[in-house]
Specification:
alpha+beta, 4 helices
Length: about 160
């Protein structure tokens, strides 16, 4: 579904993710909220972006509520698109880009961010992270460093062999 240029994505394309029950995977990650204020939220954004860049690239879609299993845990299957509270998309985009730039080394080039309007809570924010040929990209946070990647079950730590 997310195989068209980001600028061409529409509300219908995102709603089709729900209709077709397109689950998260190596190149897709759904997030209910987009929080950029606290250090923990910034770290989460940087982890997600670096893990995609270190793998095959892909999409982060903010504003997606996932189905839950019997234990109340997210299943990775979208239940509905809610959108996120985003009073000023340009400021949100600049803040997001700044976090990615400040927390990831080397910088991930070519990230594209779009808002797709007309959802219940506001726009859905879609971030395309291209596969990087300049990695591995390291998350640097409070004097700690980590390397992440993605596989079909989500984000994971890279081991020494993979970093080499």
């Amino acid at each position: 579904m997310l195989d068209k240029p980001l600028a061409a994505l529409t509300k219908d394309d995102l709603e089709r993710l729900v209709e077709d029950r397109v689950s998260e995977g190596r190149t897709r990650d759904y997030k209910r909220d987009l929080e950029l204020a606290s250090d923990a939220h910034k770290k989460e954004v940087a982890r997600d972006v670096s893990s995609l860049a270190n793998a095959a690239g892909g999409y982060l879609v903010y504003g997606v509520e996932e189905e839950r299993d019997a234990d109340g845990k997210n299943t990775g299957i979208p239940a509905r698109i809610l959108g996120v509270a985003c009073p000023n998309f340009d400021q949100t985009k600049l803040r997001y880009e700044s976090i990615v730039s400040d927390y990831i080394d080397p910088r991930v080039q070519g990230i594209d961010i779009r808002a797709i309007d007309r959802f219940e809570r506001g726009p859905a924010i879609v971030v395309h992270v291209p596969r990087s040929w300049f990695g591995p990209h390291m998350l640097s946070y409070q004097k700690q460093t980590h390397f992440y990647s993605r596989n079909t079950s989500g984000r994971r730590d890279l081991d020494v062999r993979e970093i080499r």
